[in-house]
Amino acid sequence: MAQQIDRPKAMRAVGTAIGKNPLLMVIPCHRVLTKTGQLGGYRGGLTMKKALLNLEQANK
């Protein structure tokens, strides 16, 4: 999203804004990974993040 708004260095700001989003499923922030490609935090918890990613993968 930071790249989409032409602010690639604003990754943390975008992540913070998404993290405060009361509607978790409106913006699929469960797809966001850390710089190293690992699973980072998720407001719904890492268990839910993994489950959502697995569900998407199973439905491809």
Count of folded domains: 1
The number of helical segments is 2
| Series of secondary-structure elements, N-terminal to C-terminal | HH
Amino-to-carboxy terminus distance? 23 Å
Total strand segments: 0
Q: Helical content, roughly? A: 25-40%
Please state the structural category. Answer: mainly alpha
Average residue-wise pLDDT? 81
Assess the beta-strand content as a share of residues.
Answer: under 5%
Major pleated sheet: none
Shape: globular
Low-confidence stretches: none
Please give the radius of gyration in angstroms.
Answer: 12 Å
How is this structure best described in words?
- By secondary structure, this protein is mainly α.
- The protein has one domain.
- 37% of the residues lie in helices and 0% in strands.
- The protein is built from two helices and no strands.
- The protein starts with 10 loop residues before the first helix and ends with a helix.
- This is Methylated-DNA-[protein]-cysteine S-methyltransferase DNA binding domain-containing protein.
- Keywords: DNA damage, DNA repair, Methyltransferase, Transferase.
- It comes from Companilactobacillus mindensis DSM 14500.
- InterPro entries: MethylDNA_cys_MeTrfase_AS (IPR001497), MethylDNA_cys_MeTrfase_DNA-bd (IPR014048), MethylDNA_cys_MeTrfase_DNAb (IPR036217), WH-like_DNA-bd_sf (IPR036388).
